[in-house]
Write a structure and sequence with these properties.
Blueprint: H1 5-20, H2 26-34, E1 55-56, E2 62-63, H3 66-76, E3 83-87, H4 93-100, E4 104-109, H5 112-124, E5 131-134, E6 147-152, H6 161-165, E7 167-177, E8 182-189, E9 195-203
Helix pairs in contact: 1-2
This protein binds S-adenosyl-L-homocysteine.
C-alpha cells in the first residue's frame, strides 16, 4: 500500500473541503494535504479515506473526521518544535498531522491492541513520535511534562486536572467536553495558577474512558 497521484489529488480536494468549512491555518492545511490518510484505514474503507468523514478502525474505535482533526490542530496553534501531548492515539492520524507540522509528539492510548498496532504502523510509514504510551490519558504524562499543547481526541465528561497542570505557561489544552455531545474548549495557561477558558463548536467524539481499577 503506497501513496499515489490519485490519492494526492483526492487529498487536495479534501483540503479544499475543510478550507470551505473554515480552516485557515496554512500549516494545518498543508499537513492534511501531506498525510496519506488512506494508509490509516482498514482496506475495506480505502475508497472513503478522503471524504470528510470519521471511520471505524480496530477495536471499535474511530479515526476522527479530517475537519475535526484540522479544527483541533488549528486551536493548538502548533509551532515547529513544540512539545505536544495527544490523548487517544487511535489510528495515529492526528499524531501524524502533528509530526508533519514539526511537533514533538507524545501520545497515550488505553486500548492495548490499538496501541500495539499504531506503534508499529506509524514509524513504518515514516512518522516518528517522541513517545507512544499505553496508559490512561486522564493522568496525562507527568514524566514528560510540561507541554506546549495537549489535545484530547475523545469526549471528556470533565476536564482532568493533571492535563491542566502539565501545561507550560502559555500552553494550550484543546479538549472536547461533554457526554452526549462535546463542546470544544480551549484552556490557555496564563500563569502558574490561572487559565483562560474559551468555548467553541459542538462535536461528537467517542468517550474518554476512565479506568475502573
Ligand atoms: N486521535 C485518533 C482518534 C482516536 S478516537 C486518530 O487520529 O485516529 C479516540 C481514542 O481515544 C480511541 O482510540 C480510544 O481508545 C482512546 N481513549 C479513550 N479513553 C482513553 C483514555 N482514558 N486514555 C487514553 N486513550 C483513550
Amino acid at each position: 500500500m503506497k501513496d499515489s497521484f490519485k490519492h494526492q489529488g483526492l487529498r487536495q480536494k479534501l483540503v479544499e473541503v475543510i478550507k470551505k468549512k473554515g480552516i485557515i491555518d496554512e500549516n494545518v492545511l498543508n499537513a492534511i494535504g501531506n498525510v496519506p490518510r488512506h494508509l490509516f484505514m482498514d482496506s475495506g474503507f480505502l475508497d472513503h479515506a478522503y471524504q470528510d468523514k470519521p471511520f471505524p478502525i480496530a477495536a471499535g474505535q474511530t479515526i476522527s473526521q479530517p475537519f475535526t482533526v484540522a479544527y483541533q490542530t488549528e486551536k493548538l496553534k502548533v509551532k515547529k518544535g513544540d512539545k505536544i501531548l495527544e490523548i487517544g492515539t487511535g489510528s495515529g492520524y492526528q499524531a501524524a498531522v502533528l509530526i508533519e507540522m514539526g511537533a514533538k509528539v507524545y501520545s497515550i492510548e488505553r486500548q492495548q491492541a490499538l496501541f500495539k498496532k499504531t506503534s508499529k504502523f506509524l514509524p513504518k510509514i515514516g512518522y516518528h513520535a517522541k513517545r507512544l504510551v499505553f496508559g490512561d490519558g486522564y493522568k496525562g504524562l507527568q514524566e514528560d511534562a510540561p507541554f506546549d499543547g495537549i489535545v484530547v481526541t475523545a469526549g471528556a465528561p470533565y476536564v482532568p486536572k493533571p492535563l491542566l497542570e502539565q501545561l507550560k505557561i502559555g500552553g494550550r489544552l484543546v479538549i472536547p467536553v461533554g457526554t452526549d455531545s462535546q463542546r470544544m474548549t480551549v484552556y490557555t495557561r496564563t500563569s502558574e495558577k490561572e487559565f483562560d477558558k474559551e468555548e467553541f463548536d459542538y462535536f461528537r467524539f467517542v468517550p474518554l474512558l476512565e479506568d475502573k481499577n
